[in-house]
Structure formats: structure tokens, C-alpha cells
Amino acid sequence: MKVLFLVFGTLLLVSQSNIFQQWMRNQTVFLSQDESPSSGKTLVWSDEFDSGVTKTNPNPNDWERQIMAGSQSGNNEWEYYTDRMDNSWLENGNLVIEAKKEAYKGYNYTSAKLATNVGWTYGYFEARAKVPKGEGFWPAIWMLPVASRYGPWPGEGEIDIMESVNSESTFPYACQTIHYGGYLMEGGSKKEDSQQAPKNNCFSMGDWDDYHTWGVDWSPEAITFYVDGKQTVSVPGTSWYSWDYPKNVHYPAPAPFDEQFHWILNFAIAGNWPGFKVDDSKLPAQLIIDYVRVYQ
Fold first, then answer.
1. Active site includes 163?
2. What ranges in the chain are assigned the alpha helix state H?
3. What does the pLDDT look like over 204-245, one tens digit per residue?
């Protein structure tokens, strides 16, 4: 497949080869966009995180603070997610998620993971956030199904709107992608068919120390990602599918992206992707979210 890019006023037609993917990790190049991705849609839900200067809790009617050890995530993370105001709160019109270096319930780090209590099917989803940088940091703005009917991950689907990976060899960079596929029984054995599209859709965050908007336009025809209103990549709906394991049932497109998904905001420390070396001198650190919005 080939992609058309506008780079410094010059049109380039490039293949999605390994060389191109490596180049993308070190660039911040976006497709041109004539209008806002929210154009023609209506704002149906948002949290502007309006608050005063005094710390308050996120609205429990909208958000659930998920209490769990990071090791339960399947990614071998090192933090413990708490429901304490020490790790997540509203202040000065922002939601703050703070990761700390501290001993807590057998773990050496604490943080927070929040999920909305409601979900949506299709629309444009946007968050404005200031993303922390530091070796071993793994903050993310993403979506999972509220109640999947397609079995366990990755068959249930996942939409990663912003996943920032900070490792010793490649940091900091941000990724936007979807996961689908799953596991199936073949010849009496469990076979993995886990799919990621597009693979390695990551780009350098460089000196990004301010707020940026991260969005996804999700329809039955395509899932299209944006940064600061500019399109980065689009995945056609014809490529999706799901395997429901252990039922061994195959669901074609539009599965699994035809069900309700909800927002998830979290700040992980270490894990399979960023690695297991953490720059403790950068802690405490904060993922700061100005707003999250849903347009349909």
C-alpha cells in the first residue's frame, strides 16, 4: 500500500516499508487537512474538567478510577493504580494523573487509570493533553469496548488514540493504532492471529512540552487518526475482523469496531513495550488532560 504525504510543500508517494516506518519514528509529518475532523458533527458528550484552584475528585458519574496492580494488565507494568486523590484529581481546569515513586501494597510506584462509565459507537473522539516524558513512562489515551461480544483481547478490539512510549533506545515517541484479530483453534491447538494496524505508526515527540490534541474519527468505513487537527493515518474498515476464542467463531468487518467503546486514560510505569528501566529522577510526573470530547 502507498500513502500520499505533503512534506514541506512537496507531494511524496512512499511505500509503507520498514525503512519508511523507521523514518516515521523520527519525524512529525502529517497529512494536510482542509477542515476540522469534527466538522459536520455535533458535540454529544464532553468533560472539560472545569474546577477551581482547589483539588477535587473526577465526577464519579462519568469516570471510574480502576483499582488494580499494573501487573494485572498483561503488560508487566510496575505501578499500582489507586483511587486516591494523590494520583488523580481535577485542578485549574484539568484532569491530572500523577505517577509517583513510593512503596504501596507491595509495589514501588503508584499512578491512576480512569475509564468513562458510558461508551459510544462511531464518531470523532478528541482529547487535549500535555504528555510527560521520561524513561520508562507509558502514558496513554485510548479506548476499549464497554462489554465486548467478541471474546477477549485482541478479538474485542482496541483503539489507541495516543500511546507515548519512552524507552532507553527510542524515546520519546507517540503511537496511534488499532488492535483486532484474536486467537483461534487450528489443528487442535491455540493459534495467535493478533493484528495491529498500521504497524509501527509512531512518530517522534521531540521537544513537545506543551498541550496537543489527539483524535480519532471512527466510522464503519475507516478509523482515521489526527494530531492537532491534522490526519496522520487511516485504516480502512474492510481490513478488520475478529476471532472469538475459545468459541473459535470468526466475525468479519465491521467487527470488532461496531460496538460501544469508552475512554481510558492512564499513566503506566515500565512494561513490555517501554522496557524495565525507569528514570526515577523524573518522578513524580503528570499526564495532564484539558478535555475529552465526543462528536457524532
1. yes
2. 18-25
3. 776 677 899 999 999 999 999 999 999 999 999 999 999 988
- State residue 18 phi and psi, 5-degree precision: -60, -35
Range in 11-20, 99-108, 111-120 with the lowest mean pLDDT: 11-20
The CB density around residue 61, as the number of other CB atoms within 10 Å, is 7
Q: Residue 6 burial by CB count (10 A; 0-12/13-18/19+): exposed, middle or buried?
A: middle
Q: 269, 109 in Cβ contact below 8 A?
A: yes
Dihedral, 205, 210, 211, 216 alpha carbons, nearest 10 = -10
Residue with cell 487535549: 128
DSSP state of 68: E
Residue 9 has pLDDT above 80, yes or no: no
Cα–Cα distances (Å) from 256 to 162, 172, 260, in that order, read 20, 30, 10
Q: Which residue is catalytic, options 163, 168, 186, 259?
A: 163
Residues paired with 194 in a beta bridge: 181
User: What letter would DSSP give residue 228?
Assistant: T
Q: How far is CA 202 from CA 3, 23, 47, 51, 197, in A?
A: 15, 10, 27, 33, 11
Catalytic residue, candidates 98, 126, 156, 158: 158
At 27 the pLDDT is 41
* Known catalytic membership, residue 156: no
Distance between CA atoms of residues 257 and 46, nearest Å: 21
Which of 21, 2, 45 minimizes the C-alpha distance to 261? 45
